[in-house]
């Protein structure tokens, strides 16, 4: 058998490799040999030989928590995500978009950061300066807040007399008047103003996102909610299935179905039906996403102790979206029906509630090869850190957040207070206690470049290449330096750890003979790079096919 591709003179990423291997060969979409030097017997007339000159060859990155259709959609709407964090820059971009799209009944988009505004949040008055004649609905970069203008508030009937909905909060001024920021479920009515996107538009968004991810070296991912009610999106299950059937889906994708907290157990039949539908060549659904709280920055993350410097109208200890007793019942029900569970928990109380629920669910189906995971883990109480290993729960981490950005230093840390800061993103402690790590980007919440996240996981500072590492200390002063993890742990979390989280470690995540040829080539050796985030993916391969090259 001749190889289709041979990579040689490569810094191969291999666990505990003492063989000095520097060459890898691919045929029929799989890795057929790993060794030292080129085996001439594998070279045929069509074999492509790539001399990497000592640069790294890694398993393809697997993003364990991402929202690709939302990421692609951002590029097709009013996209603020790539702009400098300034009020004027945002408003000028919104005005320009509105002028260029006079027929859009609602100006929609995403990507704004609160640190661009005095006080940490924009207002409807800001938007009214540039668009007053039609609704404007803009999701924050993290998807947990919606910025609207006065016309949008009027259309949905939100005023000073409107109560906060369950699972959400309307930001108000000192007189109780809504300011134009709607947190969590409070943003649902505004998002409902955005006309539904047709399937062709959603498919275009998916393919834009796929190319962006391939260009970053990502060969597969977990979509953390194919029907998540955020980012102004509707159901995208059909989008994935259509792209897969047409041969357009080149990545390997595991989708998660959304657990609607207000619908209860009656949604189980629908979830089972959708799981059965969600089977394709490169796409499958076997997971349910359960969202237990919000985020610290708007005081909707569920905390064990009250927030410090609590804003007016905020719950002192945040919000648990599902009652803990009900959460245990939900997890047991899902496990009995062979679902893996992907949970959102930011605050330490939410993390504990999720661990409790997953622990109780273990007895619901003994022997189930569960790949349950808890994502985000902004704050974890020290007593709960050993429980990840004890319960076999994967810590699904977004390492890019673990740095001293202005957004964190000015908005988040004052809310947590100094006593909780040491428990902020405790990746190192979870791993030291034997917990398994998977890594994801949460794009479009933050950038999908795995190398930026790996740099931050290792150094707890931002990469020089990342324009969103903003603040005096973001690139120089570590955020809780003791929670850094090694380069080996970080790369493994973004490869084999994430592959395991989506039940694919038997065919992805490592450079092993017989595994799929899902590979990424970097422009340098990652082991000796001064700034990991400054490296570039020069080639990405999925199943032996090159999907990105520069």
Automatic annotation (TrEMBL):
Annotated keywords: Hydrolase
Domain Amidohydrolase intervals: 48-548
One Pfam family named in its UniProt record: Amidohydro_3
SUPFAM superfamilies: Composite domain of metallo-dependent hydrolases, Metallo-dependent hydrolases
Gene Ontology molecular function, alphabetical: hydrolase activity, acting on carbon-nitrogen (but not peptide) bonds
Family annotation (InterPro entries): Amidohydro_3, Metal-dep_hydrolase_composite, Metal_Hydrolase, YtcJ-like
Source organism, top-level taxon: Bacteria
Entry-linked CDD domains: YtcJ_like
Matching Gene3D superfamilies: 3.10.310.70, Metal-dependent hydrolases, Urease, subunit C, domain 1
Protein name as it appears in the record: Amidohydrolase
Biological source species: Gordonia polyisoprenivorans
């Amino acid at each position: 058998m001749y190889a289709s591709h041979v990579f040689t003179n490569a810094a191969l990423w291999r666990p505990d490799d003492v063989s000095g291997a520097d060459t890898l060969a691919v045929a029929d979409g799989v890795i057929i040999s790993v060794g030292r030097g080129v085996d001439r017997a594998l070279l045929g007339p069509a074999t492509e030989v790539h001399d990497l000159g000592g640069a790294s060859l890694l398993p393809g990155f697997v993003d364990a928590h991402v929202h690709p259709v939302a990421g692609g959609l951002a590029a097709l709407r009013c996209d603020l995500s790539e702009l400098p964090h300034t009020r004027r820059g945002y408003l000028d971009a919104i005005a320009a978009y509105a002028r260029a799209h006079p027929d859009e009944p609602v100006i929609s988009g995403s990507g704004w950061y609160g640190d661009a505004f005095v006080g940490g949040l924009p207002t409807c008055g800001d938007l009214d300066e540039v668009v007053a004649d039609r609704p404007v609905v803009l999701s924050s970069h993290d998807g947990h807040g919606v910025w609207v203008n006065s016309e949008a508030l009027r259309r949905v009937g939100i005023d000073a007399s409107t109560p906060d909905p369950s699972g959400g909060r309307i930001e108000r001024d000192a007189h109780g008047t809504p300011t134009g920021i709607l947190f969590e479920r409070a943003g649902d009515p505004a998002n409902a103003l955005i006309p539904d996107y047709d399937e062709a538009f959603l498919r275009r968004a998916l393919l834009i996102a796929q190319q962006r991810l391939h260009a970053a070296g990502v060969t597969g991912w977990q979509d953390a909610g194919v029907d998540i009610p955020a980012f102004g999106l509707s159901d995208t299950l059909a989008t994935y299935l259509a792209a897969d059937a047409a041969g357009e889906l080149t990545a390997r994708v595991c989708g998660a179905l959304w657990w609607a907290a207000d619908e209860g157990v009656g949604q189980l039949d629908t979830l089972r039906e959708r799981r059965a539908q969600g089977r394709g060549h490169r796409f499958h659904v076997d997971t349910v996403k359960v969202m237990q709280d919000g985020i610290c920055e708007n005081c909707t993350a569920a905390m064990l102790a009250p927030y410090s410097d609590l804003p007016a109208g905020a719950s002192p200890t945040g919000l648990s979206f599902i009652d803990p007793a009900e959460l245990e019942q939900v997890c047991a029900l899902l496990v009995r029906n062979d679902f893996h569970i992907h949970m959102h928990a930011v605050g330490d109380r939410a993390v504990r509630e999720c661990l409790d629920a997953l622990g109780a669910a273990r007895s619901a189906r003994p022997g189930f090869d569960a790949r349950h995971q808890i994502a985000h883990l902004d704050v974890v109480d020290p007593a709960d850190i050993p429980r990840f290993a004890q319960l076999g729960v994967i810590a699904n981490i977004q390492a890019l957040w673990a740095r001293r950005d202005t957004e964190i230093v000015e908005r988040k840390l004052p809310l947590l207070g100094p006593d909780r800061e040491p428990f902020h993103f405790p990746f190192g402690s979870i791993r030291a206690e034997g917990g398994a790590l998977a890594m994801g980007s949460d794009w479009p919440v933050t950038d999908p470049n795995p190398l930026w996240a790996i740099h931050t996981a290792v150094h707890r500072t931002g990469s020089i290449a990342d324009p969103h590492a903003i603040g005096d200390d973001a690139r120089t002063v570590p955020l809780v330096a003791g929670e850094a993890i090694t380069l080996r742990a970080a790369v493994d979390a973004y490869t084999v750890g994430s592959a395991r989280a989506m039940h694919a470690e038997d065919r992805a995540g490592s450079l092993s003979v017989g595994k799929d040829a899902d590979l990424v080539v970097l422009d340098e050796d990652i082991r000796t790079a001064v700034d990991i985030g400054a490296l570039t993916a020069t080639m990405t391969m999925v199943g032996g096919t090159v999907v990105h090259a520069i």
